[in-house]
Amino acid sequence: MSNTALLIMDIQNCIVSSFAASELIDHLQLAAASARKASIPIIYVVVKFRHGYPEVSSNNKTFSALTAGTFHLVENDPATDIEASLAPQPGDIIVTKRRVSAFSGSDLEVVLRSQDISHLVLAGIATSGVVLSTLRLAADMDYEITVLSDCCCDRDDEVHKVLMEKVFPRQAEVITSQQWAEQLSEPLDEERKEDKADEADDAAYDYASH
Predict the structure, then answer these.
(1) pTM given for the model
(2) Is residue 79 a contact partner of residue 14, using CB atoms and an 8 Å limit?
């Protein structure tokens, strides 16, 4: 799993507050804890802009509403902070993007290449936004992809369902946070068994030597 990274995307106060996300947060906490236990790096991806939104084009239908002041995603605003219950820990990486995809307007690709990451585990809000956009681009860049279905949500439950069941499986493995945690624990269990076997061999050798 040394080539794997968990991407937790757009889990920011102003975004989480607009969703019924209590269960989502629980699943994300499990995913993050599982990653840390397996020494898998966690990369938080956040969307923020400079004051005055100089990065936002009037042609961009998704973000142009920001310039009208109807929604705020400004740097150094507490509203754009990562949700406190999922706060980054020392060693975690934070990447700032300027568009929907985690790759757009960010240095994510540089970070991934520097860390020799080839397998991305995706989680975040929204399924039809950052998750879909990141998955599509990552697939075109030949990354191996896993999507944690219960660590993503969307305003439209039907859209979430169609993406998870019909669209994403064409390019990614789609599993739950619990299934991923179990996958990660299997190599650890094998290592423990091997360690115990080695200890038993050492003990047998010591006994035979006396």
Answers:
(1) 0.85
(2) yes
Q: What is the DSSP string of 157-205?
A: HHHHHHIIIIIGGGTSEEE-HHHHHHHHHHHHHHHHHHHHHHHHHHHHH
Instruction: Kindly report, residue by residue over 31-79, the tens digit of the pLDDT.
Output: 999 999 999 999 999 999 888 887 888 888 777 777 766 667 888 888 8
DSSP 120-158: EEEEEE-IIIIIHHHHHHHHHTT-EEEEEEEEEE-S-HH
Domain 4-177's class? Answer: alpha beta
- 19, two tokens: 């969703």
**Which helix or strand (DSSP H or E) is residue 32 part of?**
helix 22-37
Q: What is the pLDDT of residue 209?
A: 57
How far is residue 183's CA from residue 201's CA, in Å, rounded to a whole number?
28
- Residue 193 has a pLDDT of 53
Token duo for residue 99 = 């568009």
Nearest CA-CA partner of 130 in 13, 50, 49, 11: 11
Q: Are the C-beta atoms of residues 105 and 98 closer than 8 Å to each other? A: yes
What mean pLDDT do residues 103-124 have? 97
Residue type for position 191: E
